[in-house]
Design brief:
285 residues; 10 strands; alpha/beta; Rossmann fold
Length: 285
């Protein structure tokens, strides 16, 4: 696994790992992954943003991958909002926030509750109202292998069963970025196991929907919702509710993509984000 380019200061004394793309004096874009994922989910999008002149930072959330684990097991929404505020503080300008799932929850709360100033907000397959059945399916998968996997191939088989719409990779070495190998030789998902203790109560919009709705009503900056058409989380009803809460929000539905939109259809995902950013840049000129 490649070492992170940067170690950034989060809240509560935690160090957060990040990969940087593009010139440091470029307009900042923070890429915030979903629960159980890592900064590597944004690799292609980060490189493309960097090549376009933006300063893109793909962050490992607390308790994930190469970032510190919380000593107290604090993985509630407010902890991620505090981390986001700490990441934004030293930037040279208000960033564009791109948040998938958990990263979107933190971004929406941080913006809507006035904790951070941002130039624009991109929510990736997350809304205040979620499909509870889909949320439970994700939670069940995250808890399904507490003893890990004997090999990368075994882990790849588990992912293929969970995501049948995504071709199983023949080369499984890339999956190692999402796993850590223990002293017993087994591979486990690269997050603090405490992150999924009562995960729905901690991070799911199913348990904080009213707070997210209140935050959404306060969003005044340019906003884009990118949904995976095959999403088990965001429904048509969810989309309509968000667009009523944030009437100026743009919306893109990515065909043949599930909840992990960037991983499923990165080209279509990045095209949507690129066009959105180009639009707000043009409006500012």
């Amino acid at each position: 696994m490649s070492a992170p380019a940067l170690k950034l200061s989060g809240a509560d004394g935690l160090s957060l790992a990040a990969d940087a793309f593009g010139p440091p004096d470029g307009e900042p874009v923070l890429l915030l992954h979903g629960g159980g994922q890592t900064r590597h989910a944004w690799g292609e999008a980060g490189r493309a943003l960097g090549e376009a002149g933006y300063y893109a930072l793909a962050i490992d959330a607390r308790g994930h991958s190469d970032s510190d684990w919380s000593e107290t097991g604090d993985y509630g929404p407010d902890a991620f909002v505090r981390d986001l505020a700490a990441l934004v503080a030293p930037l040279n300008a208000p960033p564009i926030l791109v948040g998938a799932s958990l990263g979107g929850v933190a971004s929406l709360l941080a913006v809507g509750e006035g904790v951070v100033q941002a130039r624009a907000l991109v929510l990736v397959d997350i809304t205040p109202k979620v499909n509870e059945e889909g949320s439970q399916k994700i939670g069940a998968f995250m808890k399904s292998a507490p003893d890990g996997f004997a090999s990368l191939d075994e882990a790849a088989d588990a992912v293929a069963r969970y995501l049948p719409h995504r071709p199983r990779p023949k080369d499984t070495t890339g999956l190692a970025k999402n796993l850590r190998r223990g002293e017993d030789g087994r591979y486990r998902w690269h997050w603090d196991p405490r992150f999924i203790d009562d995960a729905n109560q901690r991070i799911s919009p199913a348990h904080s929907g009213d707070r997210l709705r209140a935050a959404a009503r306060n969003v005044r900056i340019p906003t884009l919702l990118v949904r995976g058409a095959l999403s088990e989380i965001v429904t048509d009803e969810s989309v309509e509710e968000l667009r009523a809460l944030i009437p100026h929000a743009a919306y893109v539905n990515v065909a043949d993509a599930g909840h992990m939109v960037a991983g499923d259809k990165n080209t279509a995902f990045f095209s949507a984000v690129r066009d959105f950013i180009a639009g707000i840049d043009a409006a500012a000129d």
